[in-house]
Write a structure and sequence with these properties.
about 240 residues; alpha/beta; Rossmann fold; 7 strands
């Protein structure tokens, strides 16, 4: 059971307490967001179920950013998990600054955890901060962390109906990365068209990229998507500075 939201216990009725928790979380999230915007850091909340390929996508992102001719981009990661720092260690081995946030029994990150995690990474110097949330398709979608965008990793092995079964997660996603597409030849029963159709039902503005961290397929498009948000942030900051001058 998650200590903070009480999920999984039929005898827990967390309505009033839950409201207070979310109110405090939202205040902390606003504080995080002010930090990120003041320092022009684009914060990406990367969510998905266990084994969906979140860490592998970050490793592939690191490889792509190290390619000759790639624009110099500073990236850091806060990796959330119930136990171990395995994901953070993998990300550091890929050449990205990373810090683990170990939640114990909480099935999601919250804004206060992220704020504490920032003390251990040089976040002010980053262009992008990825917050790799705890593997879960329910609770992480509820908690604002102060991020700019929500990205959900959904692997082709998870089932075509996941968007319909867990609509809140996908409803809040700005982008879905359909991962492990290199396995599709071994999964003739899986229809990408059906997955995309189901996403279109629940996402207000459907946006899907097919990627394979193993082969690199779609990673360039993913980098371009991220770059677009970076440019939008820079343009917004420049406009704001001009308005204030």
């Amino acid at each position: 059971m998650c200590d903070s939201c009480g999920c999984g216990d039929s005898h827990v009725f967390p309505f009033d307490v839950h409201e207070r928790i979310l109110a405090g979380n939202d205040r902390a999230a606003r504080h995080n967001r002010e930090h990120f915007r003041d320092h022009h850091v684009v914060a990406v909340n990367l969510m998905g179920s266990p084994g969906s390929g979140k860490t592998a996508v970050l490793e592939a992102t690191a490889r792509a950013l190290r390619q000759p001719g790639s624009e110099a981009v500073k990236v850091g990661v806060l990796a959330g998990d119930l136990a171990t720092d395995n994901d953070a260690a993998r990300i550091r081995a890929a050449g990205i600054v990373a810090e683990s946030i170990t939640t114990g029994s909480a099935c999601h990150l919250d804004a206060a955890m992220v704020h504490r995690g920032l003390q251990h990474v040089p976040w002010r110097t980053l262009d992008y901060l990825f917050i790799e949330n705890v593997g879960n398709l329910v609770c992480p979608a509820v908690y604002d962390l102060g991020q700019d965008v929500n990205v959900v990793a959904l692997s082709v092995t998870e089932g075509e109906d996941k968007p319909l079964k867990y609509p809140t997660m996908f409803r809040k996603a700005d982008l879905v990365l359909l991962t492990k597409v290199d396995l599709l030849p071994q999964l003739p029963e899986v229809s990408v068209n059906t997955i995309e159709h189901n996403l279109s039902i629940v996402m207000p503005a459907p946006a899907v990229l097919l990627v394979s961290a193993k082969t690199g397929l779609g990673i360039d498009e993913w980098i371009r998507w991220l770059s677009g948000h970076g440019r939008l942030r820079s343009a917004a900051c420049a406009t704001g500075a001009g308005a204030m001058a």
